[in-house]
Amino acid sequence: MGTDEQYGVAVFRVLDGEPGASSVDVLRAIADGERRHRRVRLAGSAGVATAVLGVLAAGWLLPTGWRGPATPQTADSISAPPSAPPSAAAHLVCRAAQLPTPPGQPPKGVVSGADPSGRYLVGRTYPDNDHPSPVIWVDGTPHPVAIPGDDPGLVDVNASGTAVGISLVHDAFTSWVYTGGVVTQLKGGPAQVAAIDEHGTMVGSTAAGAVRWDSLGADPVPLPSPVPGWKTTARDIDQDGTILGTASRGAYENVAVLWHPDGRVETLPAPTGYGATSTDYRGTAIRGGYVLGKALYDWPGGKRFDGVVWNLRTGTVTSTPGLFNAVNGTGWIAGSSGLVIAPGKVALPGLSPADDARSTEVYTLSDDGTRLAGQVGGTPLPVVWTCTAG
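RE: above sequence
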């Protein structure tokens, strides 16, 4: 299963263990790699997190210190990505560089999303351990973003530098859009926005299920469930408008779902592994017609899981043991189990030889395969990996 099997299974249970409105603080549970898991729910569900710092009205516009894409300035420790992708895993060499945090802040930080080129990265840093600060990195330079509420963070960004994020307001998840230096709350009440595409379409979930926002200022559009009574969540959106998510009934009965631009709703075929067909597989990411998911299988003493890739062009389904979070338009996948370029696998180094490979978390993978980002260590430290043909 790899060196991080036990932790991976624990994370997977926490992240996807309950259907529908039940969720977790993704930015704390996965993206910051602190190995601390705290369950929170959307408004209207039981078990709401109690700590809320902000009491805010809808529609606030918050100016920040950054007013849009900056003139490209590559950080000293980060090389510009190569212009062409490497040819094969056997010849790929990746090196890690630590991302800076804003001036005056400690080095602790996490990366949770990126645009397809890897130029824009989003996540959060920690001026102190109890109050995270959302950040967007542009060519390696960090820019703080002021998002109201408790536990704020940015989760995704497109090639125009428009980012989306979440926070807790009145004990409920609230979704935000950051564009042109202004933060605006998305319409529709409590919701968790998960992704934004190059056209500005956003997807996410409310207590009632998966939704789509067609633009900033638009009301959320509910996405139908493929099975009546099953709860849905939306996780990602492809460049053609195809939305990926999960339909759930019970803690361990889940299926990956596609909402197509023409209105069709498709349940992806169940993957097989370990001598069984999975009845618990969820959609994680989509790019260029490749869908990444996670499949769970019963195993003596617990569960085992695979990263699953559905090729929508050919209909093929492939599985790789491990925990993966990102896929690009050529079908490469990356996560805490490394970078996989079928049939090979590339180990991602830490910032020093002493770094434990089990503390490496990867959340973004550029379209050309040359730029990955995430974090390493228990602190954790934000990192970008640059990969070239060796």
